[in-house]
């Protein structure tokens, strides 16, 4: 995504956040208390003045009890082959299968640049993630330790605990992230 497209992306995320928040009848104060992101930051995101990191978007999704991809739901599809959405920290996230309410899952393609490390906030109770590496270098933070996950294998874990992802290889690392949400 070009630098010129970033303000449009920020505004689309902000508009979607406002839609989801107001649909629940929540104020910025209420959302801040639910997700642990400051009211000021939430306001900046809603106005399109801030480029939220992946971690911040996960916190907001957890606070709203919605899927990660629902925050990106109204975003246009990538314009061409190989073009992805770049969010904060250089992490690229592409929705492969958008959130499906009846099935309670979504599938993302995540690309971590060389040396990237980020920690995710715990999701709601009952959320489970499957990590399916497509390349070497994918490591997952669970129970206080980094665990390498090799291509051709998979890791399933309860995502309602602190967890994270990193790439310590010399090449970008890619993985499919299948997220299962408990039924309401």
From TrEMBL:
SMART domains: HTH_XRE. Coiled coil: none annotated. Residues 17-71 form the HTH cro/C1-type domain. PANTHER family: HTH-TYPE TRANSCRIPTIONAL REGULATOR (PTHR46797), HTH-TYPE TRANSCRIPTIONAL REGULATOR SUTR (PTHR46797:SF23). The lineage of its organism: Bacteria, Pseudomonadati, Pseudomonadota, Gammaproteobacteria, Aeromonadales. CDD domains: cupin_XRE_C, HTH_XRE. This is XRE family transcriptional regulator. Keywords: DNA-binding, Transcription, Transcription regulation. It comes from Pseudaeromonas paramecii. The keyword Protease does not apply. SUPFAM superfamilies: lambda repressor-like DNA-binding domains (SSF47413), RmlC-like cupins (SSF51182). The keyword tRNA processing does not apply.
